[in-house]
Each structure stands twice: as C-alpha cells, then as structure tokens.
Amino acid sequence: ASPPSRAAGRDARRDPETREKKPALIIPGFLSGFQKYEEMRRLLESSTLGLGPIAIAPVTIADWVPTLLGGDFRGILDKVDGAADELRSRSKARKIAIVGHSAGGWLARTWLGRAPYSGGKRYRGVDRCDVLLTLGTPHYSLEAYPFGRIEERRAGDGLDEDLADVDADDARADDTWTPERARGSTLALTNFRYPGAFERGVRYVSVCGAGEIGADFDLLALLRGGAGGAKKDALRSMFAGVSYEASTGSSPRGVDGDGVTPIARALLDGSETLVLDGVAHQPGGEDDAPWYGSPGVVEKWAPLLGESP
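-> structure tokens emitted (309 positions)
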C-alpha cells in the first residue's frame, strides 16, 4: 500500500484541567536502551499536561542484538508486556498510553494485536492501551538495508492460519505487505495483520521530524568537496539518504525526514499526524539539534497523549 501523504496534525494544545492523569509507557527505539529516555520520562512526568506516572520499558541495547541475527522480538515484547502491567497496577488505570520511538512504535502495534506472535504468545495489548503515539517510526520501511538483512526465524505465529482466511478482496491482500514478506519480518507481519490504525478503541498519533533532506551517497563528490560546514552538511544529507533509501527502496534525493525516517514512511494510515520542523531522530546529532525527547519538543507532542478515543 502507498504510504500516507503528509497531513496536518490536530491542534496539540489541550486543557490539562479537563482530563484525568494519563499513565504512559515509553518503548525505546532500535539499538537503544532505556537510559536514553530518562529525560523524556522526566519531562513528561513533571509537565502540567496531566500525565503520569511515566515508565520506560526496560529494554537494553543487548536485547536488540539477536534481532540482527535473525532472532524474533519476543524478548523485547515480553519486557513491554511486563512493564505495561506494572504501570497499570501502579497507576490503578485500566488503560495506558504508549509512546514508541522509532522501531518501538511499530513493535507497539505488534504488541497491541490479538493474533499469536512467535512462540504462539498473544499479547493483546489493545485490552490495556487506548493511545499509541509514535515518534519517527518507520511504519512503512521496506527494510532494504545496504548490506541486506537476515530473515527472522519465527515459529507458532499463526501466519499459515491467517493465510487460509485471506482472499483477493481482503484488506491484507496487498502488493507490498505480502505473506512472503511477512514470514521473514515482524514489521511486515505487523503491516500484513494490522494495517494502518487498525485497532478499534485506540487513538493512533504519528509524529515525525522534518528538515533533513536526503541526498544520494557520492563518495567522489565528498572527496572533491571542500572542508568546513558545507562538507559536513553534505555528509549528513548523504547519511540521511542511506537510511531513507533503506525505507523507500528508491533514490533519497529530495526526500524530507528526521535524518533516519522519511516523513511519508512515518505517518501511519488513518492516524492523527504531527510534523515537527527541525527535530532530529536521535539525540547528540550535529550542532546538538533537538530530538523528540528534548525540552521544548516534548511539549509539542505530549498533549496528544492525554486524550482517549
């Protein structure tokens, strides 16, 4: 399916006096550990937006390593599942909000689902969550990485049973998110099973940074170029382009995004959307550019967490 076009987000300004406190769970992004999100957690919990308590799923960098070698995401999803239950118990809330950064956003969609995942486990996060807000999540990435990727090894995920129910008129009968692709990728499986804003009773919000324009990688041009800021800008655009091309499968020239995820691949079909100019995918970038967890940026998207569908 074609990714959704850039759209205007709902006004993020809300009256905190008119809503109850909303607990939220942060899910780290790919190859990121929970420590990176401590400032984000603190900003959310100390705000006047009516949020809290705020927790971070205890995911470590090491938890991601098996997925680079063809492993599934059960270890990470189990940590998300346990953290969600602990947060609900601590807050006495029936349902929580989820904030998923990068790959954490599409993994949250997997966790929401009722169908079995690898090993036959059914997470059914939809019974415990009513808001999913994603930050720079490559929902529609084709995963066309420069050095390829090892297909996942999953068993007991019920995909064969799914296929028995699919016909030509099924919404899942898609030219991109095919059963073949779903067999080797949890992201593709998620798009096959749970396309777009799939779950009833869940508000989906897609947030993406903008302003980092991609470029084709050209080593000769870099070697011929001068020194200083212009060369740094060109290199940054080229590295963004490598990531954008992995998502889109085509030239990244002129593609806009947050430096890792193109805008068009981050806006989940059917979700509310918010595009933030000048916001980077990760902290610690060039010139210490603000990212999704920076002061002044969190306040732009956080008000959208407090509203249930």
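The radius of gyration is 19 Å.
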